[in-house]
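Subject: for your reference before the review

Hello V.,

The reviewers asked for a structural picture of the protein, and I figured it would be easier to keep everything in one thread rather than splitting it across files. Below is the amino acid sequence we used in the manuscript, unchanged from the supplementary table.
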Amino acid sequence: MDDGAILELFFARSESGITELDAKYGAIFHSLAYNLLGDREDAAECVNDAYFGTWRAIPPERPEKLCSWVCRVVRNTCVDRLRRRGAGKRGGSYELALDELDGCLVSPENVSDTVELNELTREIDSFLGSLSEENRVIFLRRYWFADSIADIAGRMGMGEKAVSVRLTRIRKRLREYLKQREVYV
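And here is what came back from the structure prediction:
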């Protein structure tokens, strides 16, 4: 079933919309949640919470890219769970991936002004647009989807060392990019 038909089921308030959404994209959502949380039970709960959030938001929302939109809901649900679960605790693959970015970005706790956060978001979006498609995929798979370096290497047909080196170079370019634009982090 295509995304438009799934959206129409949501707009008709048919519960089969969730069933169809899960059948088409459930594996992606569960993989994302597991990569972020590292626990299958928590991941399943977050995906179910995301489905409920999607049910409440559509209508009136009509996302252009349904999978990406729901991935964002899943990711936000998982990040909220991580914050509740381990305020102050570190560990897991998501935290490891975020630790790699520490030299480039500030943490949300350090951003006092929403305007500054929005500016940073725009600059990162611009930076991502300047990357080759392959480097953008590697960066997003690591820092948005929290894929392991081994998973990214397999997906991209590269060695793990090559992916690791690319990520190091991309982070260095991001740091330089933000400095050039006087985005101090």
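For the response letter, the relevant points are probably these. The chain has nine helices and no strands. The radius of gyration is 18 Å.

Happy to draft the paragraph if you're swamped.

O.
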